[in-house]
Amino acid sequence: MSLPHALLTALIERPGSGLELAGRFDRSIGYFWSATHQQIYRELARLERDGLIKSKREADARGRKRIYRVLPAGHAELKAWLVLDDELPPLRDAMMVRLRAEAAVGPSNLAPVIRRRLERHQEKLAQYRVIEARDFGAAPATDADALRHLILQTGIRHEANWVEVLSEALALLDRAK
Amino acid sequence: MSLPHALLTALIERPGSGLELAGRFDRSIGYFWSATHQQIYRELARLERDGLIKSKREADARGRKRIYRVLPAGHAELKAWLVLDDELPPLRDAMMVRLRAEAAVGPSNLAPVIRRRLERHQEKLAQYRVIEARDFGAAPATDADALRHLILQTGIRHEANWVEVLSEALALLDRAK
DNA sequence: CATAACATGTAATGAGTTACATGATTAA
DNA sequence: TTAATCATGTAACTCATTACATGTTATG
Lengths: 177, 177
Known about the structure:
Two copies of one chain form a homodimer.
Chain A: H1 3-13, H2 18-27, H3 37-49, E1 53-57, E2 66-70, H4 72-82, H5 94-105, H6 111-135, H7 143-176
Antiparallel strand pairs in A: 1-2
Helix pairs in contact in A: 1-4, 2-3, 6-7
Chain A binds a DNA duplex (28 and 28 nucleotides) through helix 2 and helix 3.
């Protein structure tokens, strides 16, 4: 149940509207906690009902646009949640199931599937590296920046890990043929 | 929606009852696709209703125990599903949200939380290494074994990755103090 | 015969996804 | 004035989790 806290964090970084947050989730926070706009609107409404954030209609803005801001109670809630333990999140990756199924039912046509997935990991890795070069090229100015860099590096390692694993899987399947 | 296919795979590897499968999920398949016994019973019932598996009451067994076996239609379904593409599974890790929240709301008492989580990753890594030494000490006998080893190695790399990241996070927070 | 362990389920809830609905503003 | 885009939402559904219910068999 981290979505409300991801939203609080995003709104502390910069206040914004529902759709704007959805956009930001597609680019940054969503890389490790994704959410659709439907989910985001529902959570924003809930956070406002609970008095953690407050919305204001933007004067000279399109349509029904509302800008959300975090209230002191929201800050407090985030600080309290921050130091809670959670369970190790399970991997839940269908590819692992596929690899195991392949081992169980014998050779099928898995190589192209792995190849396409490998490509997507390579793309994501490249994206992350572009962001890294752009945002963290110099030595970190603040501890907060160093933390943000570490978060990105976690994503980079994760993708690099999959690139290695899937490359090995391909080599293995090729050798088997 | 991989649980039914994880179950088919497990039942091809060895037929078994619901609770037995739940136990196996806790030890092996569950490391990358976890499921509770409630979920497993529900899925087994659905798979049987759909004619992919068949259960039989075990004669000299405890209580109402049913042993499930995969039918030819189940094999076919698994083979067909095996070569489907899926999206990159999102990371969805609350720890990333916490790190980002820490960067946003300034220094709080995050270090102990990270330390506890680091320990759990180290434990899991140690577990995996024991399994690796036990099951994959020698050169792989078959391609299927090589695949199963690769799956375990994916888990090992994943845990090692987190151990590194969290160690760095701790170093970073210590330095900031 | 009481208790632990085995075995299978139901019910309620919550989180996440997909499809659809609606209105306002801008640009062609 | 119509199409595209911005913006906010509802409804229905599936998946996963949590809590609870129930019955069976072995063991002390």
